[in-house]
Amino acid sequence: MTTEGIRTVLAANPNSAPAESGITGQVSIRPVRPHATLGVPNLAPYQAKLDVLDASGNTLTSFETDPSGTFRIPLPPGKYILRPQTSGLYPRASEQTVIVPPKSFAQVRIVYDSGIR
Fold this sequence. Notes:
The chain is mainly beta.
């Protein structure tokens, strides 16, 4: 699918052909409750939209994780920036620089701050 020259991909698409390299990962959000309880995780998987930028900061593509927050996006080897999208102050996450090695998938974890305090 193309929107204004930017390719949008559902990263969890099971029909996509296997690729040799790219980025795979998990997105979660925390905290999910205002009070922490010892032994009870205070984070959850998070379905999010992210932009992929090249090393110069140009947007290459955008994608959305699956409902469980996982994604796998095929990319050629190189240096990329993953920029989590947000519609307001919260939830928010920091962008990450990722190096994709040849014939391998770089693994990342992205954690959104829910703003719950």
